[in-house]
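Two proteins, back to back. First:
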Amino acid sequence: MTLTFFEVIFTWWSSEKSNGGVTVPGITAENAQGGEEDLGNSKSDGSSISSSESEVNTSDADKGKDKLGGSSTEEVDAVHLKRRVGLFSGVALIVGTMIGSGIFVSPSGLLYRSESVATCLIIWGACGALSMLGALCYCELGTLVPKSGAEYIYLLEAFKPRPKKDNLTFGGKLKDFFGPLPSFLFAWVTVLLLKPSSYAILTLSFSTYTLSPIFTYVGACAVDEEHKFLESIARKLLAAACIASITFINCYSVSLATKVQNIFTAAKLIAIFIIICGGIYMIALGNVSYLSTGFEPFDPSLSPTTFSDIATAFYSGLWAYDGWNNLNYVTEELKNPFVNLPRAIIIGLPLVTGCYILVNVAYLAVLSPIEMINSPAVAVDWGFRVLGPVAFLIPLAVAMSTFGAANGSQFTAGRFKVVIAPLQKC
């Protein structure tokens, strides 16, 4: 893998260097000016370019203008997908990819590091505000550079070489090399590491919480190594089936993929609404003993909260907010992106922030902080306490949430490859 990576880097750099026009034999810095003067004389004589050819080139350049504002003639043959993502689908994409399994399964990491209930809730809100600032920056970038690809296209536009009078200088060569390199490395890491690993985690979480109530109710819980092995095989097979079904949906129709995303986002919001309503009901019954502790440490044996603990708590919270940049991967498919991109971000981020804070309040109305920290699946334990015989709805909600997040991840990953494929020359 390492050898292949350096071979690709060398091949890409060689193609960039040869396309830059700086290695043509017989052309040096001394005679380049003379060649330009000869070319100017030939143009003045009218022997090389006619007026009709000039008009054709001008019309071709006008045809090559991008509807989003691009004017490069190199974009004449570019592939642009139809604009089928509206405001509701944009909000569903942001919310659906941000809310995965984290808020249902493991919100206890932030609580453990904050060491108090009030500090925990404040950090949840602060993480939402910080994510909102980042999303607003991406909103500005998405309207300034209205192209799909998110970070890749922004790095490419920011570091691309600017035209110079003398392109044969060492500085010009150096900038030609470092220009597309950051975006190329980002594309390499995203395609081979980030997207596949997150996709695998989401699908495995889907299979785990889909099969968990089945194994529980049929009494097939793992009690020995053989049963654990069979459960592991069943989860992996269901995860593979989930990957295949999501791939088929995204390959078959963009409209179908957006409809699936909208449905599963609505389903996970309904599940969160059920948890919030259950928490309000328990608070109305007077179960506020855990919430009333405020900034008091819930475990006196713990050491006082340090700055590193707060920083680690922010890290755990920001991981739960990951996904707010996914709409920038499909900017070219968004209807009226200059209006709908800011609106989707302004609607989606506060909605997710409010859901996260209220869900944690609902958890603390039923479970103690120690119980939340020791629980492998907080929402499932909360469901057994509050929902009783219909507690199976919580694992089902987690499965639907992870399926929707996986569908959104696949939707953006496919568009990312469409963006980077024609721009890489290696």
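And the second protein:
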Amino acid sequence: MAARVWLEPGYKCLSDEPVRVRVGGLSPLQPVTMRAGLSDEKGETFGSAAFYRADERGELDLNRSPSLGGHYTGTEPMGLFWSLTPVKPFSRLVKRDVAGSPLRVHIEVFDGHDGDPQERPLASCVNERWFMKEGVTRIPVREGRVRGVLFVPPGDGPFPGIIDMYGSVGGVVEHRASLLASRGFLTLALGYFGYDDLPKDFLNLDLEYFEEAVNLLRHHSKVKGPGVGAIGISKGGDLVLSMATFIPHVIAAVSIGGCNANTLGNLHYKNITLSGVGITLDRAKFCESNLIDISEVTNNPKDEENKDCIIPLEKAEGHFLFVVGEDDKNWNTPLFAQQAVERLKENGKNNYEILTYPESGHLLEPAYFPFCYASFHRLVGLPVIWGGQMKPHSIAQIDLWPRIQQFLRKHLEKQSKL
């Protein structure tokens, strides 16, 4: 009987969903190498490999069979996916066309351990990992000053409303927003620099722009109001904290790898200005392969000269979720989260939750997204280390993704009209 590999429940799924990889038709106890690979929209290729041994019936079930070596070891049902590694060093997987095409992950089975990928595989299949559930609508937004992309779930609603932002990469990043919409959140992937006619940088940002986006979202006919949520990573992480602090209708904020102070430029709101916390470039560390560790470059927000940069979180009436990768090499996220919590406690506030993940880095993405240890940093102009170890970071993403959704639902679905 010829070997075959198949996926359960099927060959198409959302990119945040697991699949069960199974192989049959092997010889009893046959050693095999499982390989996965994909090419992204920039033409960059990513690959992973793990060594397995078939059972007495000549079968493999990655939900139960342990990897004996390769990119990961142990029983990891989705290890082939989250361990996808760039062939060109320091490339970061990008998915821009979330509506028109999936990530196509090719899965192959080779005889023996460390099977030569130039050989003909014993069996192969393709997993199409989509970013939009059937029925989700993608709508480019160019209304007033607001620029972004709106994702509307199927159905009449009302749905919790979310604003989604990334960091110094700029532009509009859509993959997380489209997945949130696929999970029932009406989500606006918001640009704030480096896109359309928006500013080219974020040296001077106007929080009233973000307030305009909030009002646009909460007045959508399918959004359950009156409050909305916001999620941001890196620079987007401190922006959502400022939004929840100063904009009353932002009642739930998820800050992933964010800072408790305003960073990298001035933030203006009416008659208030938060300056950007300073940096000390001398603290950058050059590591292997000319990578840079910038985790100590951002100054301590509690230093006297930075007191005007700290976000007055205690003024917020909404709720915060701080997400911390303990091995974050972009900046000192554990310290920033600790300072944020201390400030809230000192002011008698308990409107926060904190999730801390050991051996996890800066780029905590939705579940099963491939781990990125290092890539080009737009501001630094060189590849930087993001931190984390592949397996614990990937397991953290699997744990974190539903927790983010639970937090947002808890604070957005049960609100009543004011």
